[in-house]
From TrEMBL:
Coiled coil: none annotated. Pfam families: DDE_5 (PF13546). Keywords: Plasmid. This is Transposase IS701-like DDE domain-containing protein. The keyword Calcium does not apply. It comes from Streptomyces globisporus C-1027.
């Protein structure tokens, strides 16, 4: 990425830094927050601390001070992320809160949370950190505002590792879906707007049903991608040809509801979530989840399941579950289509804002870096690139 001249942006980067990091108690912390943010925005190539320090300062000790601020200074990142979210909301009117998983490849095994994991998208096992991100999304873009870091049992249970990585005592082992729910709670606690629908694709992870239960218990509207083999119980008739047409007491795999050999129900002009319309063979029906009650004497919740078959074959069909049963199918498709915006945003964080360039091994340092990277990305997108609420695709 070519270095930006942040001096001529509509909002000086110093003003944004003051808003997001103004809670930091010391003047030197606030100054280095602005310096790191500026370095992420203006340094070409790899965003190493040494390169960024050289970009923003002539002091021979600048890199040491920047490293100290990032990895050793005990500042709280939660207020910074809350302020970041509120600033982004002032610029955008987000249509959804999108949750996405990012695989951060790492060398060695000393960085906090690093472990070996199979990545379905690549078909390979990689050495990585697994991050769960929350994005404010419109039809045009997605802006990262909150993050969680998965800590496998080997990190949580090893006291020496915990001490070296400075993992707080209050932080334990949490699954991907638990991190996702934590992020939703953080967004609810930070937003100045009404809560937005949650859009999540955690279909490569085993806890999707737990996520659905958690969102339902919180009263959040959602569109969540389901693995094809997720058990569901159909309710009434379905619009999918050849699928089950009566109430069935026994659960069936979600993918069986659509027959997968049938064309399904054609809905001309359905919104494709990318700013256009297509003739997607969208199949939809009402379902319940097996043996799930939120409380004693509480009826089973009813959800709507809809599928978007892929032209590459029936086994590539996308299946989504929502509790917004009265929404039009094209509206639900548009929300589901926002998921890919988060993936695009993560790629931009890697390519342009040093997502993978964190120099440190500590838990606080990682969260500090992710907060600053998110702020730099938001500033670039909403100030330097001139994006405004009126420039949304697919609104």
């Amino acid at each position: 990425m070519a270095a930006h001249d942040v001096r001529h942006a509509h909002l000086p980067v110093s003003v944004l830094a003051d808003q997001i990091f103004g809670h930091l108690p010391r003047a030197d912390q606030r100054a280095w927050a602005q310096a790191y943010l500026t370095g992420l925005l203006t340094t070409d190539g790899k965003k190493s601390i040494r390169r960024m320090a050289a970009t923003v300062s002539r002091s021979p000790t600048a890199s040491q001070s920047m490293h100290q601020f990032l990895n050793a200074s005990p500042w709280d990142w939660a207020p910074a992320r809350a302020e970041l979210m509120r600033w982004v909301e002032q610029q955008l009117d987000p249509r959804a809160w999108v949750l996405s998983v990012a695989v951060l490849r790492k060398r060695g095994d000393h960085s906090c949370g690093v472990h070996r994991r199979f990545v379905p998208a690549t078909g390979r096992s990689v050495n990585c950190q697994l991050a769960v991100g929350a994005f404010l999304s419109t039809g045009a873009t997605a802006v990262p505002v909150h993050w969680g870091l998965l800590l496998p049992g080997a990190w949580v249970e090893d006291h020496a590792r915990r001490a070296r990585a400075r993992i707080p005592e209050s932080v334990g082992q949490r699954s991907v879906e638990q991190h996702a729910l934590d992020l939703v709670d953080a967004l609810c606690g930070s937003t100045q707007l009404s809560p937005r629908p949650v859009v999540a694709d955690l279909s490569h992870h085993s806890g999707v049903i737990s996520l659905v239960r958690g969102l339902t218990a919180r009263g959040r509207e959602f569109v969540v991608s389901l693995p094809g083999r997720t058990p569901v119980v159909p309710v009434g008739r379905t619009t999918a040809r050849g699928a089950y047409s009566a109430n069935l007491p026994a659960p069936v795999e979600a993918q069986r509801l659509f027959g997968l050999k049938h064309a399904g129900h054609l809905r001309p002009g359905a919104h494709d979530g990318h700013g256009g319309a297509d003739r997607t063979a969208t199949m939809t029906t009402l379902v319940r989840l097996p043996q799930v009650r939120l409380a004693r004497h509480t009826p089973h919740a009813t959800y709507r399941i809809f599928g978007m078959p892929s032209y590459s074959g029936p086994r590539s069909a996308r299946i989504w579950l929502t509790n917004m049963t009265q929404r039009r199918t094209d509206e639900l498709l548009a929300l589901a289509g926002l998921q890919h915006r988060a993936g695009t945003a993560v790629q931009s964080l890697e390519d342009d804002f040093g997502l993978l360039d964190f120099e440190g091994r500590s838990f606080p340092g990682w969260h500090h870096h992710m907060t600053l990277v998110s702020a730099a990305s938001a500033y670039n997108l909403l100030e330097l690139s001139g994006r405004r609420p009126g420039s949304q695709e697919g609104s």
